[in-house]
Amino acid sequence: MDRILSIIKRIFTLKDLRNKIILSLSLVIVFRLLAHIPLPGVDTSGLANFFENNQTFGMLDLFSGGSVSKFSIGMLGVGPYITASIVIQLLTVAIPSLEELQKEGEYGKQKINQYTRYLSIPLAVVESYGLVRLLQSQNILSNLSVVDLALVIVIATAGSVFAMWLGEIISERGIGNGLSLLIAIGILAGIPSQIVSTAQVIDNKMIVGGELILAFVAMIIFIIWMNEAERRVPVSYARRVRSGRSVGSIDSYLPIKANAAGVIPIIFATSMLVIPSVIAQFLQSSGSQKIKDFATNMNTFLSSDLVYGLLFFALVFAFTFFYTSIIFQPKNMAENLQKQGGFVPGLRPGEQTANYLGSVIYKITFPGALFLAIIALFPFVLQNATGIRTLAIGGTGILIIVSVTLELVRSIKAQLAMRSYDDII
């Protein structure tokens, strides 16, 4: 306890680090204020019921920190930017020029970030328009004139761009990853109301709340354990001549995380399940009875907990392998090792090393994919086991919060270590 207090004291005695933390907190507060400024012309009670009774859109509301269910100016959050970054990452595999740009160090990284920002604007326009039309088809949002519709889309897009800017400022001048921090804070903001609602249900149903607490504690431990799990591939670097002396080989390792994909596969899977749900909602307002019946059957099919859970599990599992294959390319890893004079003991540099790394990545991705799929299903299993629908936060929200917390702790430790090193010098 004394050690923790001394670390906290040291954090706030270092002016530079203290300013970074204060800046980050200030921008987070500004971001949360956006979620409480509603746009006009919406039935808030009907909007809340719609998101509570729809699993797919409830997940989107969770990622936005409740901004969507409030129909606020920040309802899109950083969602369009995240979608744009995923699309750009996919395009780097398909377009050789982008792949080459990605290899150009800091310059290439800045250009790709610039393309991501540009792409996030049209995506925000499309998402805001689709959301407005969806709410209108459910009679939650009143019919808007062309001017009012354009105004809502412009304000929602501007709110998303502003949130993206806040996240980048936090990343550059604050502490931790700004975009991840904003998403985590949004999820945390919805927890108090969920706890209150759940406590009322527990009292009415006389359910032991300790079981829920134990389930969440076990899930947090499981997430931390898997989030830090990694396979260390041994790597040796050849002898080098320094100052006229021959230096022996250096032994190191190449860390490959079990959960290298993070929460991206869950976001992929959620997006894939949102598309047919949105289409079904639109088709229900069609003039053709056959199309209406088809949309109703599709909506009923997707509303089934069993069907939704199985589809979600399969999509998360498949997308984990897909995304890991994009971010981890064994051939490029083997080439980079060879250029740096490194090699895996017992293997020839080049194709043999690439095949070995590919095998290792495939094997460690399997438990990682299973882990993410279980995390994604946790809220549905918990809701069906307890009958409690008020606690929307599940494994995905906990995974984001835990990951961001661990990243913040690492960032603060790195800042403290750097300051300690400077003091020694």
Give a quick summary of the entry.
This protein is mostly helical and about 425 residues long.
Describe this structure in words.
With 425 residues, this protein is mainly alpha-helical. It has a domain at 24-189: SecY subunit domain (Preprotein translocase SecY subunit, Orthogonal Bundle), CATH 1.10.3370.10. Helices cover 75% and strands 6% of the residues. The strands form two sheets. The chain has a three-stranded antiparallel sheet. Strand 2 and strand 3 form a beta hairpin. The longest helix has 36 residues, at 351-386.
How would you summarize the topology of this molecule?
Blueprint: H1 2-13, H2 15-34, H3 44-52, H4 55-63, H5 67-70, H6 79-94, H7 96-102, H8 105-137, H9 146-173, H10 178-189, H11 191-205, H12 209-228, E1 230-237, E2 240-242, E3 245-247, E4 250-257, H13 264-283, H14 289-303, H15 305-327, H16 330-339, E5 342-343, H17 351-386, H18 395-424
Antiparallel strand pairs: 1-4, 1-5, 2-3
Helix pairs in contact: 2-9, 2-10, 4-13, 6-7, 6-8, 7-8, 8-9, 9-10, 10-18, 12-18, 13-14, 13-15, 15-17, 16-17
